[in-house]
Input
Amino acid sequence: MEFSVTTLEGKEAGKVELADDVFGLEPRADILHRMVRYQQLKKMAGTHETKGRADIRGTTKKFVRQKGSGGARHGNRKVPQFRGGGRAFGPVTRSHAISLPKKVRALALKLALSTKAKAGDLVILDKAESKEPKTAALIKSFGVLGFDNALIIGGAELDQNFVRAASNIPHIDVLPAQGINVYDILRRNKLVLTKAALESLEARFS
Output
C-alpha cells in the first residue's frame, strides 16, 4: 500500500510503499492479547517472598504437656497457627515469564502495525531530528501534526536533541527501531515511524 510521508513542520515529503504482509493484515485480538500478556509477565520482578516454617528461627522443644493442658498437642512454635510462625503456602521468588513461539511474536508485531494502519493512526515521518533540545519548539510541531499521545520510532541511532526535547512531553514515547514492541504500540493512540524505522522493519521481516 502507498502511504504519504510528512515532515515535523507538517509538510508532505513524498510517498513510501508499505508491505501488505506487514501493514495490511486483518487484526487478531487473540494474538495481540497473548503477546501483551507475554511482555507483562516477562517484566514482572517476581521477588515477592514470605518465610515458611523452615525459614523461621525457633525452638522445636515441646512447649506444653501432652495431656492435661486442654489444648492441641503442639510440639513446634514455628507452625503457621502461631503468631511469629512461618506462613503456609506463601509466595516465593520465581520468574513469572511464559513461553511464546518466535513466529507468534513476529506475527503479533505485524498485527499491531496493521491495526494502527487500518485505524488511520499510523504516521510516516521523514526524520525525527531537532536542531536544539528545545521542548517548546517540539510541542508546537506536535500540535500541528496532532501528536498528543504517540509512540515515535526512530532508526537504530536516535537524535539526542530530539530525545531530550521529547522526554519532557507527557504521553510521548521515543524508541529506537530495535526497541519497537507490541505493548508500547497499543498503549499509545498514534504510531509514528520514521523512514529509517521502516527500513529497519523491512530488514527485520525480510
